[in-house]
Each structure stands twice: as C-alpha cells, then as structure tokens.
Specification:
By secondary structure, this protein is of the alpha/beta class. The protein has eight helices and seven strands, in the order βαβαβαβαβαβαααβ. Strand 1, helix 1 (17-28) and strand 2 (32-37) form a beta-alpha-beta unit. The longest helix has 26 residues, at 107-132. The relative contact order is 0.14.
C-alpha cells in the first residue's frame, strides 16, 4: 500500500479570523501545521487530535521576527524534507495601526504594523526558502495581501505601505525563485473583504479622521463581507491550483 503524501504548512496569524479558519481546514485535511501566533489555541489542538493531524504551535511576537526566523530555520533543518510531498509558508499575520493621518501616527504603533506586516514576512520567507532549498518536494510561499496594497486610502498609510511592500517583494522573490533549481512558487494574494475584527476597527473609526468609514459600513450593511471560513476555503483552493505562482500578485476574486 502506498503511503499517504505528507504536506507541511507554516501559518502566521492563526489565532483569529481567516488565519484560524485556514488552520482548522488544513488540520481537518490531515496535514502537519505549524502555527505562529501570540497564544496556543486549545480548540485547534482538539481539532488536530480529532483529525489525526499534527499540530505544532509556537507562541510568538512577530513584531520581533528575527529570533522567530532563526528558530524556524533551525526547526526546518531538523525535519525530514525528503519525506514531504510539499512545504508551504503562509504569511497571514497583519495589524492595522491607529486609523489616523500619518502626521498623527505614534511611532511605536506604526513600527509594530510595519514589522508584523512586512518585516516578519520577509524574514520568515528568507528562513523558509533557505532551509528548504534542497528539499525535493514542491515549495510554496503564499503572502496574504490586500486590495489596500494596490489602492491608497487616507489614514491607513502604514497598512497600505506594508501590503504594497509585500506585493513588491513577492514580485522580486518570484524572479529569484524562477532562476533556482526547484524554485518555490510564490504569490501575494488579496483575499477579498472578510468579516473580521479588522473590519470592526475600520467601521468604528472616527469619521473625521477616516473618510472611508462609510464605505466599510456599507460593505457590512450590504452583506458584501465574506465569512472567515468561506474566505479560507477560497484562499486554500487558490493555493492548490496547478497554476499557483503564475501571477506573483493576484486577487482571489479575479480567479
């Protein structure tokens, strides 16, 4: 009898919203999942046990990602890459800084948003690709971007800049990996508008400081927000497509 193919997924931002939904769906499929989040999730552990899947949880602070990236490289070096059919890094974590014009932003708040949203994905991606470069299986990097990386918005310079940077480093990364033997397939994917805590923040912002507040209120009242579970299914389906990585910057709604 042929052994079942083993797939490894490394996922940041798995503690809530679409990230948590993705973790649950990957575990339900029986995969080995390593989550990087602020706190372990007992409910995810229970789902892993019920599905016979392997769940490894790291409590991490991605605002200080350098030691996390070092730990990831060491951990990957201890895995049997030859036994894996594929390995995938999903950079999903992100935070919205205070919803104010840049002139009113607090340095610590802005720094946190840029470190979690851009610096951490770059460091983790470098660690992942460096540690797995000799693995024979398929390797993928999925960066969860946003339409706000491609469309400017007042009072969101920090978040927009982090996502725009994510898109562009993914374009550079695609060029690098295209030249490498068994190079990774990479994509920075906008997942659409999702009914998460982030949307609650945007709808609750001071209208005087955030001119687009009304647009986000209409998305909610008009039933145009996708549930985290549905968004996770669409994103994971995109990740599984045979043409994943053909376009380094994409939108799940255009697929």
């Amino acid at each position: 009898m042929q052994a079942t193919a083993r797939h490894l997924f490394i996922l940041t931002g798995a503690s809530r919203g679409m990230g948590r939904a993705m973790a649950g769906q990957l575990l339900a499929a029986g995969h080995h999942v390593l989550t990087l989040a602020r706190h372990p999730d007992e409910a995810l552990a229970a789902r892993a046990d019920a599905a016979g899947a392997t769940l490894t949880q790291w409590a991490t602070n991605l605002a200080d990602a350098a030691p996390v990236a070092t730990r990831l490289a060491v951990w990957l070096g201890e895995q049997d890459g030859a036994a894996l059919a594929s390995a995938t890094l999903i950079n999903n974590a992100g935070v919205i800084p205070a919803i104010v014009p840049l002139r009113d932003a607090e340095p610590r708040d802005l720094t946190n948003a840029l470190r979690v949203g851009l610096e951490a994905p770059m460091l983790l991606t470098a660690a992942f690709l460096g540690a797995t470069r000799a693995w024979p299986g398929a390797r993928k990097v999925l960066n969860i971007s946003s339409g706000l990386g491609r469309r400017a918005m007042a009072s969101q310079a920090g978040y927009c800049a982090a996502k725009a940077g994510m898109d562009h480093f993914t374009r550079c990364l695609a060029l690098d990996e295209a030249l490498a033997p068994n190079g990774a397939k990479v994509c920075s994917l906008a997942p659409g508008v999702i009914d998460t805590d982030m949307q609650v923040q945007l709808r609750g912002a001071d209208a005087a400081a955030f001119p687009d507040r009304g647009n986000f209120e209409q998305l909610k009242s008009g039933g145009q927000l996708t549930s985290p579970d549905d968004a996770a299914r669409r994103v994971l389906a995109y990740l599984a497509r045979p043409d994943f990585g053909t376009e380094p910057v994409a939108d799940v709604r255009a697929s």
